C-alpha cells in the first residue's frame, strides 16, 4: 500500500478492493464494489465499512437502524442535522443562491460576525470552500506581502490537498523529502520528542528548531514567507505544546520577515474549549485559516487576516472563487455561529472536555496500554504504547481499537506519526452521559486488547 494512503486521517482501510480480505463476507459488498469501480479519493473507514443513512445530534444511524455514538466527527460541530442550520440552509436556498460578486446583506453580516470573534486587527476575511484552499490562499498572501517563498511547517503536518497545501503536508514527504520551499521542524511532542515534559525551557528548545529551518530556507534562496502551524497539532497526535512555544516561534519568524499563519481548520470554532486554539498560547497570528466545522457539513471555509495584508495581497494578485461566500453558505455559517454563541458551546466544550479528560485518566490507571493522554476541550488524544518505559508504539492494538469500538456502536479515530493515538473529537454538543458511554466501551475494548 502506498505510504500516502496508510497515513490519511484514519489509516484503517485502503480504498483498494484488494485490501479487503474477503469482500463477500462484508456487510455491503455490492456498494463497495460499485464505489471502487467509479470513485477515487479518500479511503473508506473500517475493515467492514458502515453505511450511514441518518444523523441527529451526536448520533448516526446505519441502514439497519443501528445507532452509533459519534466521538470522531468535528465537522457536524453543532450536531448532525442541526435544525437551526438545516432551516437556514433550506430557507436561503429556496430564495437565492448566487456568486458572491453581487452585493448581498447575508455575506456582509456573516463577515462582520465572524471577524468580530477574532482579536482586534484580524478584521478581514476571504471566503473559500475548503481548508485546503484556505491554506493555499494564506500562503499566497504571505508570499505576496513578504516577497519570500519559503514556508516553515511541522514534520508530519497535514494542511490540505491542493498542490501547494499538499507540498506543505509533510506527513507525505517524510522528514527529509519535500520541495525546496518547505522546511520542517520537529513538533513539540513532550511525550516522545527530543525534549520531554519536566525538562527546563522546553518551549525555547523546541522553538530553536525554527532558527535552523529559517536558515535552511535562506541558504536555498527561498527566504521565509511564513510559519504555518495547526495549534492543535492534530496530525502529530494532538499535542499540548509548552505554554510559551508559539510565542517563541512567532518572534523568530517575524524577526526573519515571515508571517505567522494559524491553521484553525481543526482547532477552530470552540473545539478546545476556547473559540480559537491559538488563543491558548498567547499569540495573535497574522493570518488564520478556517474550515471543517465552519458550515457544520456545508463546504465553507475562510482566511481571516488584517486589512493591511488583505489590501497588499489584493493590490498585486487576483483571488476569485465561484462558490465561496454565496448567500446559502453565509446563512449556514451564521446559523453555526448563532448555535455556538446561544448555547455557549465554548463553555460546554471546556466543561465536557474536562470531564472526558478525568475519565480518560481513570482509564489510564486501569490499562497499561495507555501511555499518554493529551489535548484540550473536546479534542483528546490517547497514545497507546506496548511498554511505558521504552514508549514502543502499540500500532497493532491501536488499529484494532476503533474497529472494536465500532462493533460496540462508538465511532473514534486514529492519528499520529505512528498511527497509535486514539483520536476523540466528537461534535461539540457531546455531553457527560455520552462521555460515560464512550468510556464504558473503551474500558471494555482495552480489557480485551492484549499488549503484544
Ligand atoms: N488543515 C488541517 C489541520 C486539516 O486537518 C485539514 C483536513 N483534515 C485541512 C487543513 C484540509 O481541509 P479540507 O479537507 O477541508 O481541504
Task: Determine the number of helices (DSSP H or I, runs of at least 4 residues).
Answer: 13
Bound molecules: 4'-deoxy-4'-aminopyridoxal-5'-phosphate
- The CATH architecture classification of the largest domain is 3-Layer(aba) Sandwich
Tell me roughly what share of residues is in helical segments: 25-40%
**Sheet with most strands:** 7 strands, mixed
Q: Could you report the average pLDDT, rounded to the nearest whole number?
A: 95
**For the terminal residues, how far apart are their CA atoms?**
24 Å
How would you describe this protein?
- It is built from 13 helices and 15 strands.
- It has helices at about 5, 30-40, 85-95, 105-115, 130-145, 165, 200-220, 245-255, 305-315, 325-340, 345-365, 395-405, 430-450, and strands spanning about 50-55, 60, 65-70, 125-130, 150-155, 180-185, 225-230, 260-265, 285-290, 300-305, 370-375, 380-385, 410, 415, 420-425.
- The relative contact order is 0.15.
- It is globular, with a radius of gyration of 22 Å.
- It is of the alpha/beta class and about 450 residues long.
- Helix 7 (about 200-220) runs parallel beside helix 8 (about 245-255) and helix 11 (about 345-365) runs parallel beside helix 13 (about 430-450).
- The protein has two domains: about 50-80 and about 345-445, Aspartate Aminotransferase, domain 1 (Alpha-Beta Complex); about 85-340, Aspartate Aminotransferase, domain 2 (3-Layer(aba) Sandwich), CATH 3.40.640.10.
- A hairpin with a 2-residue loop joins strand 1 and strand 2 (about 60).
- The structure holds 4'-deoxy-4'-aminopyridoxal-5'-phosphate.
- The site of 4'-deoxy-4'-aminopyridoxal-5'-phosphate has 16 residues, from helix 5.
Amino acid at each position: 500500500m502506498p505510504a500516502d494512503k496508510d497515513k490519511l486521517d484514519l489509516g484503517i482501510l485502503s480504498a483498494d478492493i484488494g485490501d479487503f480480505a474477503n469482500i463477500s463476507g462484508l456487510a455491503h459488498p455490492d456498494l463497495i464494489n460499485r464505489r471502487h469501480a467509479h470513485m477515487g479519493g479518500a479511503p473508506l473507514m473500517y475493515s467492514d465499512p458502515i453505511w450511514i443513512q441518518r444523523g441527529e445530534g451526536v448520533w448516526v444511524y446505519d441502514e439497519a437502524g443501528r445507532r452509533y455514538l459519534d466521538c470522531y466527527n468535528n465537522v457536524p460541530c453543532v450536531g448532525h442535522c442541526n435544525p437551526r442550520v438545516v432551516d437556514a440552509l433550506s430557507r436561503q436556498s429556496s430564495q437565492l443562491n448566487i456568486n458572491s460578486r453581487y452585493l448581498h446583506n447575508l455575506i456582509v453580516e456573516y463577515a462582520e460576525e465572524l471577524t468580530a470573534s477574532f482579536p482586534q486587527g484580524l478584521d478581514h476575511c476571504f471566503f473559500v470552500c475548503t481548508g485546503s484552499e484556505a491554506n493555499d490562499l494564506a500562503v499566497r498572501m504571505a508570499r505576496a506581502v513578504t516577497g519570500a517563498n519559503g514556508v516553515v511547517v511541522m514534520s508530519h503536518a497535514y494542511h490540505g490537498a491542493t498542490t501547494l497545501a499538499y507540498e506543505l503536508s509533510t506527513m507525505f514527504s517524510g522528514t527529509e523529502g519535500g520541495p525546496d520551499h518547505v522546511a520542517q521542524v520537529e513538533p513539540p511532542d513532550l511525550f516522545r520528542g527530543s525534549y520531554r515534559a519536566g525538562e527546563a525551557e522546553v518551549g525555547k528548545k523546541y522553538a530553536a528548531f525554527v532558527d535552523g529551518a529559517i536558515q535552511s530556507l535562506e541558504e536555498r534562496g527561498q527566504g521565509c514567507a511564513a510559519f504555518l502551524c495547526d495549534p492543535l497539532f492534530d496530525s502529530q497526535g494532538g499535542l499540548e505544546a509548552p505554554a510559551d512555544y508559539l510565542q517563541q516561534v512567532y518572534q523568530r519568524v517575524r524577526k526573519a520577515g515571515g508571517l505567522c499563519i494559524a491553521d484553525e481548520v481543526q482547532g477552530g470554532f470552540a473545539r478546545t474549549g476556547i473559540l480559537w486554539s491559538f488563543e491558548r498560547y498567547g499569540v495573535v497570528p497574522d493570518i488564520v485559516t478556517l474550515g471543517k466545522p465552519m458550515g457544520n457539513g456545508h463546504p465553507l471555509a475562510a482566511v481571516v487576516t488584517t486589512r493591511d495584508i488583505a489590501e497588499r495581497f489584493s493590490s498585486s494578485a487576483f483571488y476569485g472563487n465561484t462558490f465561496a461566500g454565496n448567500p446559502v453558505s453565509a446563512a449556514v455559517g451564521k446559523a453555526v455561529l448563532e448555535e455556538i454563541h446561544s448555547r455557549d458551546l465554548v463553555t460546554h466544550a471546556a466543561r465536557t472536555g474536562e470531564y472526558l479528560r478525568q475519565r480518560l485518566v481513570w482509564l489510564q490507571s486501569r490499562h497499561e496500554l495507555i501511555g499518554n493522554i493529551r489535548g484540550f476541550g473536546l479534542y483528546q488524544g490517547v497514545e497507546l504504547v506496548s511498554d511505558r518505559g521504552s514508549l514502543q508504539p502499540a500500532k497493532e492494538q491501536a488499529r484494532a481499537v476503533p474497529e472494536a469500538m465500532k462493533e460496540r456502536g462508538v465511532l473514534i479515530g486514529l492519528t499520529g506519526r505512528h498511527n497509535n493515538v486514539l483520536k476523540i473529537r466528537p461534535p461539540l454538543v457531546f455531553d457527560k452521559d455520552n462521555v460515560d458511554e464512550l468510556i464504558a466501551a473503551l474500558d471494555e475494548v482495552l480489557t480485551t486488547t492484549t499488549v503484544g
